[in-house]
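Posting for a labmate who doesn't have an account.
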Amino acid sequence: MLLTITTTRAPATDLGYLLHKHPDRPQSFAVSAGQAHVFYPEATPERCTAALLLEVDPIALVRGHKHSDGELGRYVNDRPYAASSMLAVAIKEAFRTALTGRCDARPELAAARIPLEIRVPALRCRGGTRLAHSVFAPLGWSVDAKSQPLQPAEWGDSPYLDLRLTGELTLADALNHLYVLLPVLDDAKHYWVSTEEVDKLIRAGGDWLAGHPEKELITHRYVSHQRKLTRSALARLAEADDTDPGELDNAVTEEAEEDERKPLAVQRREAILAVLRDLGARRVGDLGCGAGALTRDLLADAQIEHVTAVDVSARALQMAARHLKLDQMPDSRRQRLTIFQSSLTYRDDRLAGLDAAVLMEVIEHLDAERIPALERVVFGFAAPAAVVVSTPNAEYNVHFPTLEPGALRHRDHRFEWTRAEFRAWAQGVARNHRYQVRFLPVGPEHPDAGPPTQLAVFEQGAKP
C-alpha cells in the first residue's frame, strides 16, 4: 500500500518538520499488519513529497484467525495492495504527532493551511468515484478519482480507485480525513471493532464530521455497521450539527419507520426566525454561529438586510464557510454577511449596532463563572434592541431514548437548566440591563416536563 503527501509551500522541505520525519533519513518500523516505511521521493525547496509504504505480511494476517473463504482465499487477496484500515493504522503509527497538529519547531506552520496533494494509487472503494467525491469534497478537497480497469478490458472497471486529492488544509486535518475515510471507503476493518471505535472517531473526526453531509454513512461504516455504536457516535456529534439526540434512531437503520415529525433543530430555527420577523429586525447577529445552519436561514430571509455571524472556534467558522459556500456565494448575498472569529466573553465593538442578537444553544457551552462576562458583552456593551436565547430544557431529557439518566445532551455542555433555572437567570439579566423578557416553548410540550427547547426573548425598554 502506498500513500504520498506533497506540498509546494516554500520552503517545501518544512514538510519534514510537520511530519516529524527528516527528508534525508528513511525510517522503517513494525506495525500490526507488517512493516511501514517513510521516505521522501523528492525534497526540494519548491516541492517536497513524503511517502508512506506499508508492506503487509499476509501470513501474519491470517495466523490464529478462522476464515470461511477457503484455504487459498486466506492468502490470495487484495489486502497487501489496496489501501484500507491497515493503511489508516500505519498513518496513525507513522505520523502520530502530526495527527494532533503539534509541531514545536514550526507551530505557526502546523496551524496554517498549506497547499497539499495526496495520492493513494490503489484504494478499494465500495461506492466508486461518486462516493469518493461525496466524502472528500465537502471537506475542501478537489477530488480526482479514477477507476482502475480490469484485465481483460471487456470485464469493465475494477472496484479500485486511483485517488488524488488537492487542496489547502492544515496537515493535521488532511491526515485525520485519511485516517477516518480510508476504511470508510473500503467498508471493512481488519480488526475487531469495539466501543473504543467511537472514541477514535470522535478524536479524529469530531471537528469536521459533525457538519458533514454524509455524516451518517461515514459513521455507520466506520463502526462496521454496528447500530448501537453508530447511535452512540451520532449522539456525540449531534449538537455540533444542530441535531438533537432524539432524532438519531431512524437515521441509521433502513428497517426503522420514517419519522414524519419535523426535526427539533428545524423547529428551533423556525421559531427564532418567526420571533425576528415579529420584531422587525433588519440587522441580526448569529452569536455562536457554529456550522452556520441559522446563518444560512437568516440570509434566505428577505426581511433581514445584514447578518453578522460570530464564533470563537476557527474550525466552526471553516465549517460554516463550507456549508454556506462562501466561495460560490453571489455578491449580492455575500455583501449581506459579515463573518468573523470572536469570543462572547470579551468586548468586541464589531457587535454594536444590531437590531437583534441570537444565542442559539450557546450559553450551555460556557462555564458558569463565564456567564456574567457574556451578559456584560452582549446585553451591556453590544446592547442590541433585542436578544433571543435558546437552550435545552433539562427536564425534557428523560424523553430522549439515547440519553442515559442524568446525562447531558452533548459532551461539551457545562450544564443544562430546568425551566425555573432558565427563567431566574433571564429575569435577572433583564432587570440588570433594562430589558423586558418573555418565554416561548419550542418543540412538543410534555404536560410535566415542558418543551425540549426553551426560548427567551429580551427587548429593551424595561422600566428602572
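Reply:
Got it, the C-alpha cells are right above this. Residues 35 and 299 are 53 Å apart (CA to CA).
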